[in-house]
Design goal:
Elements: E1 8-17, E2 22-29, E3 36-43, E4 47-54, E5 59-66, E6 71-75, E7 77-80, H1 87-99, E8 101-102, E9 105-113, E10 122-133, E11 145-150, H2 152-160, H3 167-174
Parallel strand pairs: 4-10
Antiparallel strand pairs: 1-2, 2-3, 4-5, 4-7, 5-6, 5-11, 8-10, 9-10
Amino acid sequence: MSSKLIWQRLDSEYGPELPLFQVRFDSMRHPVSAREFKRLVLEAPDWITVVAVTTDQEIVMVEQYRFGVGELTTEPVGGLVDPGEESLDAAKRELLEETGYGGGQWRCLGSVQANPAIHNNLCYHWLADGVERIQDPRPDSGEAIKVHLMSLDEIKECIANGRLKHPLGLSALSRVFPLWDLPYTPKE
């Protein structure tokens, strides 16, 4: 990495605290021109995404309305890591709350930066293999969720028809399943 691209933070001031984010404005010095710029950062808790596979090899997905895009989406379970909570505990909690599924063998698939242009948090991807339904779903009061058990072909169809576009969900799923016809080969 080139240290000549690193900006210097001169000052930070906080803006309004929003339900999911704390707004922060950083005064930054450009690494080449030395000009000052104000940059927006949305401080957020870490997130989780769970690729849950049942004992029957079905993938547990949720359908819900997403306010940002104003439409229904299909995606893996996701949620916030509460203060003081480990990402694995958050993943298990969210899967159980949103779908009623639990148990199985859990493995961390790594983490990604949710949106490094403006967010400071990570999203941890978890694989839960061999889960079973152990209770009725108990989503938060502000959530309306429908649980779907899907095959890999059905997930690929959701990608093709645009019902599954969530980048964090796609990132998590692609660490477990071949979602696209890869590798890329250039046309001659």
